[in-house]
Amino acid sequence: MSKLYVGSEVGQLRRVLLHRPERALTHLTPSNCHDLLFDDVLAVEAAGEEHDAFARTLRGQGVEVLLLHDLLVETLDVPEAKQWLLGTQISDFRYGPTFARDLRQYFIEMDNEHLATILLGGLAYSELPIQSSSMLPKMKQPLDFVIEPLPNHLFTRDTSCWIYGGVSLNPMMMPARQRETNHLRAIYHWHPTFAGQDFIKYFGDEDLHYDNANIEGGDVLVIGNGAVLIGISERTTPQGVENLAANLFKSGQAKEVIAIDLPKHRSCMHLDTVMTHMDVDTFSVYPEIMRKDLDTWRLTPKTNGEMHVEASHNYLHAIESALGLDQLKIITTGGDSYEAEREQWNDANNVLTVKPGVVIGYERNVYTNEKYDKAGIEVLTIPGNELGRGRGGARCMSCPIERDDI
């Protein structure tokens, strides 16, 4: 049995979780896409085909690809899991006790393939065939959602992230994404690939309101050697970082966390949109954002279970010392400043490393890809004209669950 373990960002990738965009995208419209955190409406068929090309590229590199939809169907096949998930996603607090009961009754009868499609892709009131005596459905418009679609599930990176011998089930910042985490909680608890396996759940696996402790996987880079690099961003708070760090230290899985305070705006929503790890000593960086003077902290465990927090003057030096390297190689976004800004927006810096020096990125980012090539990094390109509109690249769209150390 292969091990659930992610030891780095650049070691050989062995198993990864993706989500092929389907029904959720059909529910995206110009009037709702912003609430659902998309800047644009995607062509559904084309996005699916581009995603298939991404999965094929990974398989071509010997990586096993797990698909979220399939895992969810197989999880719903476990009666206890189905019960829990319906209780959690169709809760009395979300719908009121009467309507919640009627909905759960309707969904429990449904075949699991169809149910998974609805949980991921949403359901409008006009599509709901049942009557309920509750006030709520009578007060809704036909095109209102009973279950909001989860188009951001495409970005499997954020909802949960594997760090060394365990996983963080991330309490997401945005209401449009919070239900995603429960799907992963159910999968990691009941799906045969994960059930009974030996791994740690660091954070986020309880029925709690995590308040201000938000964290998303796009901000978490497992740089190896027991170190974790985390961005404090629009979606990841210092409280989230400290809670995760405390549990990483308590379990002995990490020996230091480097936290970088990022500017809080949309173009650098997560650390991995402006910086990714491509080879043991090589990072891709968008220099407009990743300036050397960004506030950086180094968190390390103390013997009494508390943590030591110290300011670090330069995040590059902090990474060099964590990895025991003399000097990092930094490859900046390509082209002149207009081209670089456009390519960063189209996720030129958000590449997925499959093994040291080999990365997957969008073919449209020609200037940056050329720079990678010249620096000795091999870029396996995938089409991203539609997928890229969701503002996430190959790293955003993948959740490694098994990867070698460096």
Automatic annotation (TrEMBL):
<comment type="pathway">
    <text>Amino-acid degradation; L-arginine degradation via ADI pathway; carbamoyl phosphate from L-arginine: step 1/2.</text>
</comment>
<keyword id="KW-0056">Arginine metabolism</keyword>
<protein>
    <recommendedName>
        <fullName>Arginine deiminase</fullName>
        <ecNumber>3.5.3.6</ecNumber>
    </recommendedName>
</protein>
<dbReference type="InterPro" id="IPR003876">
    <property type="entry name" value="Arg_deiminase"/>
</dbReference>
<comment type="similarity">
    <text>Belongs to the arginine deiminase family.</text>
</comment>
<keyword id="KW-0378">Hydrolase</keyword>
<keyword id="KW-0963">Cytoplasm</keyword>
<dbReference type="Pfam" id="PF02274">
    <property type="entry name" value="ADI"/>
</dbReference>
<feature type="active site" description="Amidino-cysteine intermediate">
    <location>
        <position position="396"/>
    </location>
</feature>
<dbReference type="GO" id="GO:0016990">
    <property type="term" value="F:arginine deiminase activity"/>
</dbReference>
